[in-house]
Each structure stands twice: as structure tokens, then as C-alpha cells.
Amino acid sequence: MEGSLLDKSLNPNKLLKEQFVSNLTGSSLSEIAALSTIVPALVVLRKWSSGDNTRRDAAKKNDDKVLPVRKDWMQYFSTLVVDYLTVVLPVLLVFTVLAEWAYTCAISLVIPIALYIMFKRSQSRLKAGLSQLPSLRADISSYRVSVVLVTCLCILAVDFKIFPRRYAKAETYGSGIMDLGVGSFVVANALVSRQARNITSMSFRAALSSISPLIFLGFARIIFTSGVDYQVHVGEYGVHWNFFFTLAAVSILTSIVRIHPKYCGLVGLLILAGYQIWLSSGLNDYLISDKRSADIISQNKEGVYSILGYWGMFLIGVSLGYYLLVDTGLKGKNRNVQVVKVWVLAASFWILAIILDNYVERVSRRMCNFAYVMLVFGQNFQVLSILTLAGFISYEKNLVLEDAFNQNMLGSFLLANILTGLVNLSVDTLSASSLTAFMIL
């Protein structure tokens, strides 16, 4: 009897769960654009509704002198609840029960934002507001939180039937919204990296020490998934490879090959162009094939070869972070030039993604090809460009929810992964009703 208990799998539906996220073809680029509009638009509307920053800061200073600590905590958590109800819950609804209404939801959010900017502020006041726009760093902070928030929701939602299959990761070519997750993390890290800030004093040993947590987490994931017989989609990165190893590999390469941020963009483009030529010359057939030999490279071919694509992506992100945040030379009224640059970059990357997808090679996260990299940048800068609109009306730049995530970015992501694993091991996600799934999420 003891032997039968030990032989019993902790995850009896492993094969069914793997099949549930396999052989998918993704969504359309237009739907990805719609979903990428909804999340930042909700944040912008919430920031506008939270009132003027100056007034709130003054009130906070006065409150600190007379209000007890308990009331401060009550106010903090009540604000956090409102942030949750106005940002997180609507996002969850759009990614599940309102998925068929994504375009309608996007339009219904864009219209009030446009009208509010057009009619609620006079032209003179709008110009005055532009000259007082907060730093772009605050918008990038909001953008990074949006990436983590959507990722935390999707990594569990994908295991339930309430989550549309087209939003999940595509098997070979095509892209669901989840395909953009790892790319978004790479871009988000690149924009605010030490390299983007032109800090090159870190030694190689220090660089290895800084990525040791990623390597530890990568091996921890391998041990956990094999130990509890957890479902693993081999077509994503390979048999042993995972998201953490990709981030670590990119960091190691960037530390070994030191390039001034001014030239990182050019080097990144050259790497991507060379890698794309290699893919088009036959490497893509090898990466798409299910055949694997016994060697470690073949076992993890998707993860190993895609490093080139992610490295090129990271270098371009470093260059953009440097030009947008460090080497700007913009002060006072010229600050709005940064916002215009973000919007132009978003449109340019989207156009390049569409051209490459149609005329070179279809978007593929599995290979991290040129089209995928441009799509990631287009989608990420679209989110960032919409978030910059918050400064046009209100100068309140950080929600309580954003501050909470910002102070615990890696911890939040790890906790979401742990909770996702626990839910999958304790709940039959495939047979859960829509109501049960939504309440768990």
C-alpha cells in the first residue's frame, strides 16, 4: 500500500494539461494591439480619477501630523482595493469572460480618454501641463508593473478553459498575448539596465554574482517540475531550458561583450539580421522539428538558439533606454519630445513587425525571430505610449498598486509562480467551471 501511494502521481492530468497548451496558433496582431490598449488605458483612467498629485501630497503631509498610524493603513488598503477593482479585475474580465468583446472594450476606453484630453482641458492649460509632465521614468515604472501584472494573471489563467486558447503561446508560428511575456521582461529590464545607464564598472565576477539568482531559479524550476511530475511544454524552450536561463544567458553575454549604449542598437540589429538569415537558411526547420538527439544542445535547441534573438532584443532595448532616459538633454518645455519619441517608436516597430511578418518570416516566439522582436517592441512601446497620457491631466504618477509591485517585482512574480503550481496540483483546472475558475483567478 505504501508503494502504491509513492507511485501515485501528484499531477495525474499532466498529459492532458500539456496537450491543452500545445499545437496552438495564437491570435491576430490586431487583437494583440487591442489587448495592449486596454491594460494601460485602465491605468490612465484610474490615475486621472485619483486626483491631482500636488493637492494629495499636501494633504498627506498634513495628515501625517495629526492622523494615527491605523488610519494611514486603512487608507492605504482601501486605496489598494480601489486600484484592484478598477485595474486588476477589469483586466481579468477582458482576458476571460469578456474576451470576445476585446475590440469593443478597447474602443470604449480610448474614446473617453480622447474626449477627456480634448474637452476637459483648454489648449493653454494643456500646453502648460505638457511642460510639467513627470519624468518618463515614472511611465516606464508603470509599464513594467503592467507587464508583471498581466504575466501573473496569464500564467495561471492559461490552465483553465475560461482563458481563450488563442491568447496562449503559439506552437511554432503566430503569436498569442502570452508569447509576448518573456520578450516584454527582456525589454523592461533592458530599458532600465546598468548598460542603458552607461554604468560599466561592474566586473565579470560581480555580473555572475548578480545573475546567480536567475540560475538558481532555473535549476529550482527543473527540480520542482520533475519532482512533482508537473506539466512542461517541451516545445517552448526545450526539455530542461526555461525562462530564467534565457534571462541569465542574455545577462552573461552582455557582460562579456561590453558595448557602449550608443552602439548597442546597431549591434543588436546586426545580430538579429544575421540570426534571421541563419533561420531562413534552414535553422527554422531544425527548430520547428520535434526530432531531438541525446546531446544537451539538441534537447534544448529552442532555448539555446533563441538566445541570439533575445540578446539582440536586449541590446536594442539598452540603446533605447539610453537615448530616452540618459542622453536626452531635454529640460523644461522640451520634455514632451520624449513622449513624442515613444509614440513614433511604437508606430515604427508595429509597421516593421507587420512587414517582417508578411514578407520575411511569420512571428515566432519559439525562435525569437526578427518579426517577433519587432512585435515585442511595438506592443511594449504601445503600452508605454498610452501610459504617458496620464501626465496630460493629472500629475499623480504612481498608484498604490504600482508602488506595491515596484517594491516587490521579483517577489511578486515568484509568488505568482508558486501559487500557480499549488493551484494546478490541488485543482483539476481542466474540469473547473467558468465561475470556479474566475473566482480562483
The low-confidence parts are 1-6, 52-67
- Radius of gyration over all CA atoms, rounded: 23 Å
Major β-sheet profile: none
- Average pLDDT number: 85
The SSE string, one letter per element, is HHHHHHHHHHHHHHHHHHHH
Shape field: globular
Fraction of residues in helices? over 70%
Pfam families: GWT1
Protein name: Transferase transferring acyl groups
Subcellular location: Membrane
GO molecular function, one term: O-acyltransferase activity
Characteristics:
441 residues, mainly alpha
What does this structure look like?
This is Transferase transferring acyl groups. It holds the Pfam family GWT1. One of its GO terms (cellular component) is membrane. By secondary structure, this protein is an all-alpha fold. The protein is built from 20 helices and no strands. The chain has helices at 2-7, 14-20, 29-49, 53-66, 69-94, 102-119, 123-131, 136-157, 180-191, 204-227, 234-237, 243-256, 261-288, 296-299, 301-326, 336-359, 370-387, 400-407, 409-426, 434-440. α9 (180-191) packs parallel to α15. The protein is globular and about 65 Å long. The two termini are 36 Å apart. Mean pLDDT is 85; it is low at 1-6 and 52-67.
